[in-house]
Amino acid sequence: MDLLTNKQYCLITYGCQMNSSDSERYAGQLEELGYTMTEDAELADVILMNTCCVRETAEDKVLGKIGEFKHLKARNNDLIIAVTGCMAQEWQERLFKRAPHLDLVIGTHNIHKLIDLIKEREEKRGHALATDMDGNVFYDIPTRRFQKFFAWVPIMNGCNKFCTYCIVPYVRGREVSRPLEEIVEEVRNLADEGYKEITLLGQNVNSYGLDFKDGTDFSALLYAVEEIDGIERVRYMTSHPKDMTFAMVDAIAQCSKVVTHLHLPVQSGSTELLKKMNRGYSAEHYLELIEYVREKIPDVALTTDLIVGFPGETEDMFQDTLKLLKKVRYDMAYTFIYSPRTGTPAATMGNQVPQEVKSDRLRRLMAVQNEISLACNKEMEGRDYEVIVEGPTKNDENHWFGRTSGNKMIIWENDGALAVGDTVPVHVDKGQTWVLKGHTLKQEAHIG
Ligand code: SAH
Ligand code: SF4
Ligand code: F3S
């Protein structure tokens, strides 16, 4: 390729796995147009920020980044800057007012329009907005997968739950499932290309297929994907305690490829607060569900999401959350400070919790959870686990890592005997709060 005419794009992704998956379809379209990827925004002809607005901190990060790119545009007027994803959907034309140096604002139902919009911008400059929400999200468009053995597979878009704190239903729209056959076909193709692990993605995977009204549900999808040769592991995210049925737990337990990791966001341990959050379950029901999961999937690793400082949260309610944490003993928890989102019901509820109380609760919550995480990981010491090798760790070429079925990261010193994508047993020597240290048994055999 002639280097002088080589057009480059820089892609920056924020937010959840859904956004990571969407980014692969943005990258695919740019590569279809002849662009190659660069990590360096200074070298890029197109900068695309795929954004999140779930909390104010997420938005602030994006606004900061948009500001940083102003000088690049001033230096090179040919540069195309695009903002896509949930924050683009929320802000729409307000983003151009705030940052006139942007060229494109593309919402969550318009991913497939990037090719045409870039082509237009290559001809002539000017703002373009594509944020109509018609419920159609296209998946069958050029996709550049970022990993070789692990693949995201979106199974639905949107959310119908309207938890009172959450902006996602407003920026992703109503739930629309992808046809089961289309998903199975994609997973088959991935298997043929050598992919070993897939993650089925949706805001609430447990309500997958219900919109077809023909009996299709998440269990049916799991059974169908289970049959596909070459795929070793099936992950899924995110589950919702209201829609996750006992029958679904049975299906997960029966499908040998479906992982022993369940991410089941509880948000709070107080039934009263769960009601105000519109979560649709009680703390008691949640605990029953967990008990059933542990009975059916004995080795299960459990993770969750928790919010502190939701409007009206009292110290007693917060104590209920701590109690639930100690009862369930999660392997890991993502903990968030409640962030008011304009347009959501909770933003205007009375009894907003002061910032210093929120921060203090977060600190206490994390302290309790870290202790539990460490204890869970210590229990893994001395046991062997199968991992799929992901490669060197970020900071050290000689240390490689892989994940267990339970999604635990194990790090070992690499002697060159393993390749990325190998499935190998590892022995855990030391459990820490966030990671485990071990050695691979293949290496042991190799050395011996
Ligand atoms: N669909 C998933 C995840 C959605 S967003 C689910 O229902 O679990 C991921 C997490 O962000 C949520 O689980 C919640 O814990 C957190 N979150 C969402 N809105 C928030 C807000 N306004 N403030 C703080 N945390 C929030
Ligand atoms: Fe947001 Fe609730 Fe939907 Fe999850 S289930 S995306 S928290 S509204
Ligand atoms: Fe953020 Fe949108 Fe995901 S708001 S969490 S990127 S669905």
From TrEMBL:
[4Fe-4S] cluster 2 binds at C159, C163, C166. Residues 378-442 form the TRAM domain. Its cofactor is [4Fe-4S] cluster. It is found in: Cytoplasm. Pfam families: Radical_SAM, TRAM, UPF0004. Residues 145-375 form the Radical SAM core domain. One of its GO terms (cellular component) is cytosol. It comes from the Bacteria. Monomer. Catalyzes the methylthiolation of N6-(dimethylallyl)adenosine (i(6)A), leading to the formation of 2-methylthio-N6-(dimethylallyl)adenosine (ms(2)i(6)A) at position 37 in tRNAs that read codons beginning with uridine. This is tRNA-2-methylthio-N(6)-dimethylallyladenosine synthase. It comes from Anaeroglobus geminatus F0357.
